[in-house]
Specification:
There is one protein chain. Helix 1 (about 1-20) runs antiparallel to helix 8 and helix 10 runs parallel beside helix 12. The chain is about 75% helix and about 0% strand. The chain has one domain: Growth Hormone, Chain: A (Up-down Bundle), CATH 1.20.1250.20. It is built from 16 helices and no strands. The protein is an all-alpha fold and about 400 residues long.
Length: about 400
């Protein structure tokens, strides 16, 4: 029963927390109409989320020290940000502030939830990853069902309602953690200076790997509805098709990469190289026509699935669970900053070129190649095997 509640917690908390971030491509359509701006200009909303997360996670060491308190602060901030977004739906520059506040709460909740669940060993982690992965994949569908046909006052009410429901559900989960005797791992002796970890072996390479294992998901998420529309697909149909592929293929990918990482010596290192290569192919073929979009979605879902089961959890194994939030936070400071800049540049190029998606996706092709080169030179990464079972 306790494990069942744990997985339900993972699923619901992640689904609500990523509803806006992963669903920004869905929200971009009604926001573009409400503000009277071109689609490329909506890309800055995703950039603001990335930049805000980069700044917020400078303080991720506090999440190591006070995980449940941080989680509760994240609840309030996330809810406040969504309410502000509902008030500012027709104000382009005002929306920057609302999204920024929401992104602070989202970032705190993201690391807090990861801090709670990255405790499992072996295939227990696979189950944790599956519940989180399914929620991540389905977040655009949740956002689409709520917001895809919202206009005017309906959009305002929908955003406000989403914020209120999120607050109620997150608060209930907080009570379950506190009174249900679930170990939330306070670490009162965690150091406060996050930048002291910069010299940890291999850490500087990871931001570039994370852009392709995680950041590319948010880039695609920021524009996929517009891209599908350019091929004549209605927004809700686009959301269902994209989410269906991402959830099903991504779930299979998490199981597959877990098996590779836990079964074969060096499996996690070689597996990550292969996963990055699959991600590169997915990005390169993605924007040409509807068929390549669907195939590319599957390849991206399968390749990036390796990130959750073979890359992110190993921060704890490699550098220590006591500083898990700190090391992930330091990596995220860099990769979110870079990813936000690339997304903004992509939006500018879309506006300048009349929505030439092929050009902007080549930016991520370059990043994928760089990630493969950097990661392949780090041959001392053992990752999963010492803890999770290769004998």
């Amino acid at each position: 029963m306790k494990n069942f509640l744990w997985y339900i917690f993972n699923l619901i908390a992640t689904l609500l927390n990523y509803g806006i971030r992963r669903g920004m491509g869905v929200l971009a359509v009604p926001l573009s109409a409400a503000m009277g701006i071109p689609q490329g200009s909506t890309m800055i909303f995703s950039s603001i989320i990335e930049w805000t997360k980069s700044i917020t996670l400078i303080f991720s060491t506090l999440i190591d020290r006070f995980p449940l308190l941080s989680y509760n602060i994240g609840i309030v901030t996330y809810t406040l940000g969504i309410i502000l977004m509902s008030v500012l739906t027709t104000n382009y520059h005002g929306m920057f502030f609302g999204i920024g506040v929401m992104a602070i709460g989202h970032s705190i909740l993201l690391i807090s939830i990861a801090n709670f669940v990255n405790r499992s060993k072996g295939y227990g982690r696979t189950w944790d990853s599956l519940t989180i992965g399914i929620a991540l994949s389905c977040a655009p569908l949740l956002t689409g069902l709520i917001f895809s046909n919202s206009k005017g006052i309906d959009l305002i009410n929908a955003l406000a309602g989403y914020g209120i429901v999120s607050f109620i559900v997150f608060s209930a989960i907080s009570c379950i953690i506190l009174f249900g005797k679930i170990d939330y791992q306070p670490k009162p002796k965690a150091p406060l200076n996050i930048f002291k970890y910069w010299n940890l072996p291999g850490l500087w390479r990871m931001p570039f790997v994370m852009i392709m294992m995680s950041g590319v998901i948010y880039f695609v998420g920021a524009n996929f509805v517009f891209l599908f529309k350019s091929f004549g697909v209605k927004p809700l149909n686009a959301i269902i098709m994209f989410t269906g592929i991402w959830a099903s293929v991504g779930t299979c990918g998490r199981v597959f990469w877990s098996w590779i990482g836990y079964t074969y010596k060096g499996g996690s290192w070689y597996g990550t190289i292969v996963a990055l290569s699959i991600t590169l192919i997915g990005v390169m073929i993605f924007p040409y026509n509807l068929v390549t979009v669907l195939i590319g979605s599957g390849l991206l879902a399968f390749g990036t699935a390796a990130g959750q089961v073979m890359v992110i959890p190993t921060f704890g194994e490699r550098w220590g669970h006591k500083i898990f939030s700190s090391t992930w936070g330091l990596i995220s400071i860099i990769y979110n900053l870079l990813n936000g800049c690339i997304i903004l540049l992509s939006g500018i190029l879309l506006n300048m070129t009349g929505n030439n998606y092929i050009l902007v996706y080549q930016l991520y092709s370059i990043m994928a190649i760089l990630a493969i080169v950097l990661f392949s030179t780090e041959k001392n990464i053992k990752y999963l095997e010492p803890v999770n079972g290769y004998k």
